[in-house]
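W.,

You were right to be curious about this one. When I first looked at the sequence I had no strong expectations either way, so I just let the prediction run and decided to look at it fresh. Below is the sequence, 220 residues in total, followed by the output.
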Amino acid sequence: MRVGVVLKGKTRKKDVELMKEHFEVNVFEIPSELPEFIEEPETFLQIPEEFFDVDMVVSYAVHPDINLELIRLAGEKGVGLVVLSGGSKAGSYIQLKKEGERRGVRVVWEEICCATPKLKDEKYSEFFEYFGMPEFEVKISDDRIEYVEVKRSAFCGATFFVAEKIKGLDVNSAPSKAGYFTQIFPCYASRGIDGGIHKAARVHKKAVEKAIERAKEKEK
């Protein structure tokens, strides 16, 4: 499977490295500083033809005008899926989805990458086996987490960080600690009282809870 990734400046390099462990990845970088409104987004998207020799595109542009143009280009080049990171900062989901429908492009839009669900689509499901909503497998010994395997990771790699940190913790504290460690990872989710970072923490906490429940069921 081949994946195209649009980066904004030097951010999200870790995401690309993780993707390269499983897929061929083409990268295109746009400037880190962009005008709030862009009348001619194609100025910033002088993307080489070979970039679109991919199955899907992940955009970290976090800009409505850039993402609309990217969806247009994807449709023109025959790329059927565009995954957008950044939530409302990436643009209006309704507008982006409508543009995708018009161009024959499926649009996945999430506030945080670790909330991205699996897609039940033969062409793209392989990517979401590795990336999206986190999933762990754990082994328990004497009510402590003896072993942790990441079955599916957030795009940013926070899930691997959490996995390392919860090893050896007791099963009662591990889920809440997983949420805490998610929040101290250098995540790009928004901060503040209503920030996406809190949702990311809850997602990882729930994933650890489910892993512990499965491990306990196996012991019965």
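Here's what jumped out at me. Residues 2-110 form a domain with the Rossmann fold fold (CATH 3.40.50.720). And, maybe more interesting for your project: Strands lie at 2-8, 24-30, 56-59, 81-85, 106-110, 135-141, 144-152.

Coffee later to discuss?

I.
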